[in-house]
Design brief:
The longest helix has 19 residues. This protein starts with a helix and ends in a 22-residue tail after the last strand. The chain contains 5 helices and 5 strands. 34% of the residues lie in helices and 17% in strands. By secondary structure, it is of the alpha+beta class. It has a single domain, classed as NADH Oxidase.
């Protein structure tokens, strides 16, 4: 069967939680952010804001406070995808969640395409996590962190999971 580079990246993407002690260069980070900003958004409002974290103390503080982000103790890079509530879609402000999720998935796919590894650690809607991340990153009240994404060069190579489940497909109606 012929391969398709985009479909291969989608199929091969997986969560990486162990990282090499190797920095991710600025040009690569900018490529990840460009991918995030290429995501679709409701009404093209693009409510996202991206906080790039490379400072070891800040990464460690995030790892200290998030129960499922301990890999940040090791990761050289984190991107927190946030929403600026002043730029949400009129009438349906909660679309920011979908917008931020689309941007996050684009970043995760770009990570895979660029030979890096990453894992998405949820922040919103857990308000205790939102407040801790907001405090650590100095976010204003109008900016909500959706997640923190640990990123780096992988120090592990877990198998790709086959998530195909034909029984979950419904044609025309349930």
């Amino acid at each position: 069967m012929p391969t398709n580079p985009v479909l291969d990246v989608i199929a091969n993407r997986r969560s990486i939680r162990q990282y090499q002690r190797r920095a991710v260069d600025r040009e690569t980070v900018l490529k990840l952010l460009r991918a995030g900003m290429a995501a679709p958004s409701a009404g093209n409002r693009q409510p996202w804001e991206f906080i790039v974290i490379t400072d070891r103390q800040t990464l460690d503080k995030l790892a200290d406070t998030h129960p499922f982000a301990k890999m940040l103790y090791q990761a050289p890079l984190c991107i927190s995808v946030c929403a600026n509530l002043g730029r949400t879609y009129e009438g349906v402000p909660d679309y920011w969640i979908q917008d931020g999720s689309a941007a996050t998935e684009n970043i995760l796919l770009a990570v895979e395409a660029l030979g890096l590894g990453a894992v998405w650690c949820g922040v919103f809607p857990r308000m205790e996590r939102v407040e801790e991340v907001r405090r650590i990153l100095g976010l204003p009240a109008t900016v909500v962190p959706l997640n923190v994404v640990a990123i780096g060069y992988g120090a592990e190579d877990p198998p790709v999971k086959d998530k195909w489940r034909e029984e979950r497909i419904h044609w025309e109606k349930w």
